[in-house]
Amino acid sequence: MSLESKLMTDLKEAMKAKDQPSLRGIRAVKAELLKFKTSGTGEELNEEAEIKILQRLVKQRQDSLSIFEEQGREDLAVVEREEIAVISKYLPAQLSPEELKKKVQEIITQTGASSMKDMGKVMGMASKAFAGKADGKSISSMVKELLS
User: Fold this and answer.
1) Cα–Cα distance between 15 and 18 in angstroms, integer?
2) Which residues of 45-59 are buried (b: 16+ CB within 10 A; e: fewer)?
3) In total, how many domains does the chain have?
4) Residue 142 and residue 135: Cα distance in Å, rounded?
5) Distance (Å, rounded) from C-alpha 102 to C-alpha 105?
6) Which domain holds residue 23?
7) At which of 43, 66, 88 does a domain end?
8) What is the pLDDT of residue 1?
9) In terms of domains, do 119 and 139 share one?
10) pLDDT in tens, 84-133
11) Buried b (16+ CB within 10 A) or exposed e, 96-128
12) Gap between the Cα atoms of 96 and 110, Å rounded
């Protein structure tokens, strides 16, 4: 089932259940997908593009959440947490830190990287290999930890 058809099904269910957090999150995803399709770039909406869009939406909400928590705006922070939970349902399962460490170590061995000078090479391969399964920040910190 494609992401769009899954979103439509979930949107109908959320409307029937009057589930406001789900409605907000699903509508945000649908809006981003529509914006991507009508952007005129000529890019095709494939699974990789969908994952990037979902990750961007989650990251935006996490950034907003941290700002709201710093400012003591718990009312707005709750909304962001709810939307993060809804959008995250559509992302692939994330790698645990142990799995990430193991796979990054395999890439380091495969590339023959030995120092921080080789970080770019390792990051390039790791970012492609873990697209959607881990965020760039956690990949980067793991690569730094293993190379230093």
Assistant:
1) 5
2) eeeeebbebbbebbe
3) 2
4) 11
5) 5
6) 3-88
7) 88
8) 63
9) yes
10) 999 999 988 888 888 888 888 888 888 887 778 878 888 888 888 877 77
11) eeeebeebbeebbeeeebeeeeebeebbebbee
12) 21
